[in-house]
Amino acid sequence: MKVTLIAVGKTDSGAISALANEYQKRLSRYCSFTLLIAKTLTKSKNLSEKEILDYEAKEILKHLNPKALVIALDDKGQIKSSVEFAQFIGQKRDSGVSECCFLIGGAYGFSSRLEPHIQAKLSLSKMTFTHQMVRPIFLEQLYRAYTILNHEPYHHE
Length: 157
Prior knowledge:
The chain has a single domain, classed as Alpha/beta knot. Helices cover 39% and strands 22% of the residues. The chain contains 4 helices and 5 strands. It has helices spanning 14-27, 49-63, 82-94, 131-149, and strands at residues 2-8, 32-38, 69-79, 99-104, 120-123. The chain has a 5-stranded parallel β-sheet. Strand 3 (69-79), helix 3 (82-94) and strand 4 form a beta-alpha-beta unit. The longest helix is centred in the C-terminal third of the chain and has 19 residues, at 131-149. The radius of gyration is 15 Å and the shape is globular.
């Protein structure tokens, strides 16, 4: 199964990028993984939150494969344990889903314009993280899911 992560805005921190890159390398053993960056704007350009969200939605839609299962990483989404997330990934893989596309929104989340394209919403935590920090956190959990599915010793219960 192909896994795509579309994230809004580039990562400013070298340490965050390095950690995300490490998990991308590890994922290559298990799936075809692609990270795509959608452009963002800032309020410093005197735009409203809605204008920024709409711009980001247009940028995300440029990268979205219409055949992919689209899952938004959203603080209002369903919370799963690592094992439950692994089961979710395994079920999608085993049911013939050819591509799962995960979305990380910008600082304001997602525009309602994306709702028709989103089939599921997952939350990584009840805590709030910067959209840049979500990348390595999500990638680590995706890597963990694949190690669980492959009965490897990375995950301990």
